[in-house]
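Box 3.1 A note on notation
Throughout this textbook, protein chains are presented in two layers. The first layer is the amino acid sequence; the second is a token string describing backbone geometry. Keep the layers aligned when reading.
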Amino acid sequence: MDVLKEIVARRSIRQFKSDPVEKEKVERILEAGRLAPSAKNRQEWRFVVVQKQEIRERIKTAAYNQEWVGQAPLIIAVCTTNTGYRMPNGQLSHPIDLSFAAAFMTLQGVREGLGCCCLSTFDEEDVKNILSVPYSMKIVLLLVMGYADEQPEAGIRKPLRTITAYNHW
């Protein structure tokens, strides 16, 4: 298994074909998120799968009318059921836990031949209302997925030597 292949292939996609994503692919993407690590293995997450066009259109409106959000045939709302738990280092666990889950789902999506964009530009209260997410929960991000209708070039990445240190800063 060579995960680096999917990591290298991943792009933020903002143009999608209208083809629906097959149920088996959606299930494997969700399974990848389910298997992600979490603080104390608490797995305090919920993934709300949105495929209905009318709901995706409402989410597009809540995402400040970004056209590509409604265009994608699959949106996964990545939610937490525990907003207050702090790890021993003082950090809130849910942003870290959900980042792992979202990254795993994104890479599985690439493996399935899909394009994906992680979306954090949306009105959380509006999306919570659209999806009937309980008040005490948070929607940390939305994964917007589907078959890509574009092939963007890779963004420039800093050289490894400029972001890496060994044994001290």
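The radius of gyration is 17 Å. The chain is about 40% helix and 15% strand.
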